[in-house]
Amino acid sequence: MSVSLQREAFDVGKEIAALAAGRHEIGAVASFVGLVRDINAAGGAGKAAVGEANQVSAMTLEHYPGMTEHALEEIVAEARQRWELLAVRVIHRFGRLLPGEAIVLVIVAGAHRGEAFAACEFIMDYLKTQAPFWKKEEGADATATARWVDARESDETAAQRWEKKA
Amino acid sequence: MTIKLLYFASLREALGLSGEEMTLPAAVCDVAALKIHLAARGAAWQALTQAKNLRAAVNQRMAGSDAAISDGDEVAFFPPVTGG
After folding, report:
1. What is the number of domains present in chain B?
2. Residue B49 counted as domain residue
3. Which has fewest Cβ within 10 Å: A28, A130, A133, B43?
4. Chain A residues in contact with B53 (beta carbon < 8 A)
5. What confidence score (pLDDT) does residue A40 get?
6. Which residues contact A90 (CB under 8 A, 6 or more apart)?
7. Can you tell me the mean pLDDT for B58-69?
8. Shortest CA gap A54–chain B (Å)
9. Contacts of A144 (CB under 8 A, 6+ apart)
10. What is the ipTM of this complex?
11. Which residues share a beta bridge with B77?
């Protein structure tokens, strides 16, 4: 069970311990945790003062039951083809999440850090552009309509880095 | 032939529909033709041919406009993904 889709929160420490338990050939574990932020990056965060319009009070993740699991499994299989990996775990949550909550967890174990770091980043970059999830954000004003998050070109660029040269 | 159609996220909301079964004329045999067929239903449906970057999946795999459609297939349309 290397891939899970769930509403519930996950415990990073427990997941790493479970993945590495009794596997003493593992020398490196790299992990990535994605969190819900309280601002919308599309609003120019980091460039201008954060206005109320950019505030995010909650987010709801929609997915495509069936396809999402398959897509994540294929991304993990692709990573395993590219690097010598000893274990991989991906957990992605769906449903309504609040700022500060963890959305996604990727754990990659290998003999050495190089493949673990690279595969962890690869899995996240592909997940961002290939796995069918969609975020809808609620603003600070509870009466305002929630808005769908636009896909970011920087995510496409990040995924393209990994494309194999012909 | 009859197929299952699914719509997600902003497209689902714009159409007011998450999915349906549909019987297609024989001429509608790929994703591009299906989009044109659906767009003829009315204003909201024109998003299928006009929206930039609309994605499609056939039998739960990402598919291009030239992907073939067969009887019993599951075809989904959705905006670019924003997970992670």
Report:
1. 1
2. yes
3. B43
4. 151
5. 84
6. A2, A3, A4, A72, A75, A76, A104, A105, A106, A107, A123, A127
7. 96
8. 17
9. A138
10. 0.94
11. B7, B56
At residue B22, φ and ψ (nearest 5 deg) are: -145, 135
Architecture of the domain whose range is A3-159? Alpha-Beta Complex (3.90)
Residues of chain A with pLDDT under 70: 1, 41-53, 165-166
How is residue A132 written in tokens?
A: 């069918």
Please report whether residue B84 resides in a domain. Answer: no
Domain limits for position B48:
2-78
Rounded CA-CA distance A119/A139 in Å is 34
Q: Are strands A102-110 and A28-35 parallel, antiparallel or unpaired?
A: antiparallel
Please give the order of strands across the beta sheet that includes A58-63. A95-97, A58-63, A133-138, A147-148
- d(C-alpha A28, C-alpha A118), whole Å: 12
Residue A135 forms contact with B (CB below 8 Å) = yes
Strand ranges of the sheet holding A102-110, from the earlier edge strand across to the other edge: A3-6, A87-93, A102-110, A28-35
Q: State the DSSP H helix or E strand holding residue A35, giving kind and residue range, or none if neither.
A: strand A28-35
Indicate the domain borders of chain A: 3-159
Sheet holding B74-78, edge to edge: B19-23, B2-7, B74-78, B55-58, B61-63
Q: What is the CATH number of the domain that holds B34?
A: 3.10.20.30
